[in-house]
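Lab manual, section 2.4: Encoding a predicted structure.

Procedure: take the sequence of the chain (297 residues), apply the prediction step described in section 2.3, and record the output as C-alpha cells. A sample record is shown.
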Amino acid sequence: MPTFRTLFGRAAEVVATAPGRVNLIGEHTDYNDGLVLPTAVPLRTTVELALRSDGRVRVASTAVTGATVRDYLLGREAPSGEWLDYVQGCTRALAESQGTVSGFEALVTSAVPVGGGLSSSAALEIALLRALRTALALPLDDVGLARLAHRAEHDFVGARVGVMDQMAASLADTRSALFLDARSLAHEWVPLPASLALLVIDSGIAHRHAAGDYNARRDECERAAKLLGVASLRDVCPGELTRAASLPPPLDRRVRHVVTENARVRDAVAALRSGDLDALGALFLASHACHQATSKR
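Recorded output:
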C-alpha cells in the first residue's frame, strides 16, 4: 500500500482521524431542523498531511485504486462529481471562513466503507479539517469544524444533507449517543448502557446523498413546510397533524414522519437515561415502521 513518503517524498507533519457514524433514531429530521441521536462507530478515516509553500493541493486516497495523486489550485476549486470534491469543498469553505489557506499534500486512508451509510464523506471532511486546524493553528472548535464540513458537502458537493453527519464525525464517540438539536446545534452526550450491544449490518445497498431520492425528499419536506406556513417541519406541533393530513401525498406522510420521529428521539433519550432497553427497542421498531410507511411515493 502506498505511504505518504512514497507518494510525496517526505514525512507527514500532521495526522488526524474522524469516525464514521450510525444514527440510532431520528431519520430525515436533521434537515428539517429536528432532533437526532447518532453514535460513532469504531471505523475511522485518517488523513496524513504536510503543508506546502504554495497554493497547490495534492491528495491521494487508498480507497481509490492505485491511490493516484490528484491536484488542484486553491481558489480554483471546481466540482467534478468525484471523491476529490469533498476535499475541494473543505478548502473552499475554509478559505471563505478564515481568509487564507495554505497548499498541502495529504494521504487519506479509511476503514469507513464508501456508500455504506456510515457517513464516510463526513469522516473524510472532519479528518481533513482537523489536520488543517492543527497544521495552520486555526481558532476553530469542533462545532466550527462541523459547520465548515457541512458547508463543503451541502454547498460545494451539492448533497443537501443536514448537519448530523458532520456533527457526529466531529463530536460523537463510541461510548455514548450524541443527542443533537439540528436547529440550535445544542448537544449532549447520553451514555450507552454497558449491557447494550449495537450491531451494524451491511445491507449491500450503496447510496449517494448528492444523487437519487435524498434531495427529492428534502424538496418535499420544504414544500410541505411552505404549504403549512412554517419555517421548517420542526415547527409543526403534534396537534397540527390533522391539518397536515390534508396535504397532497406524499407531503402529508413527510410531515407525519418528522413530527412523530422528533417525539421518538426524545423518548429514546429518556429510555437510555433510565436504562429501559425494552422501551428503546420498541422505539427503534416504531421508527423503522414509520419510515417504511412514509417513504412510499
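Check your result against the sample. The longest strand covers residues 35-51.
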